[in-house]
Amino acid sequence: MFKNTKAFTSFSVNDLPKAKQFYRETLGLEVDDSNGLLSLKIDGGARVMIYPKPNHTAASFTVLNFPVDNIEKAVDALNKAGVSFEKYDNDQLKTDPKGIMRGNGPTIAWFKDPAGNILSVLEPM
Fold first, then answer.
1. CA separation for the pair 100, 88 (Å, rounded)
2. pLDDT per residue over 105-121, tens digit each?
3. Which residues are 48's β-sheet partners?
4. Who contacts 57 (Cβ-Cβ below 8 Å, separation ≥6)?
5. Which long-range contacts (CB under 8 A, 24 or more apart) does 84-92 make?
6. Which of 36, 76, 92, 103 has a CA that sits 20 to 30 A from residue 110's CA?
7. What is the pLDDT of residues 21-64, one digit of tens each?
């Protein structure tokens, strides 16, 4: 039934102009802002829809992952752009001082968008 469909993902934010600025200027993505929504154009044709929600609650899980060739460089570049990375220190998740988790799956670092949704950069295994 869905074998040939082009599925997409979506999530909400509480401030569409702030999200547009973050995704376009901080992350450098192509952003379409028509019909009261944002559409992120991701390499390979994937689409991500972002919609405003007045009673938005940030996702407690990763809503969008960005594969990178070199996580150190990606984290450093995002830090320079003003992005802060999440730090974890528990039995399931331990990150280094830069916010990078290593040795438990892909090397990954999590950060949040202005609405508090969790995003990541990850270096595939």
1. 9
2. 899 999 999 999 999 99
3. 9, 40
4. none
5. 84/111, 84/112, 85/109, 85/110, 85/111, 86/110, 86/111, 86/112, 86/118
6. 36
7. 999 999 999 999 989 999 999 887 788 999 999 999 999 999 99
Dihedral pair phi/psi, residue 80, rounded to 5°: -65, -30
DSSP 102-119: -SSSSEEEEEE-TT--EE
Sheet with 38-41: list strands edge to edge.
Answer: 9-13, 47-52, 38-41, 30-32
Task: Say if pTM beats, i.e. exceeds, 0.85.
Answer: yes
| C-beta separation of 28 from 41 below 8 A | no
- Residue 60 in tokens: 């407690």
Tokens, residue 46? 């994937």
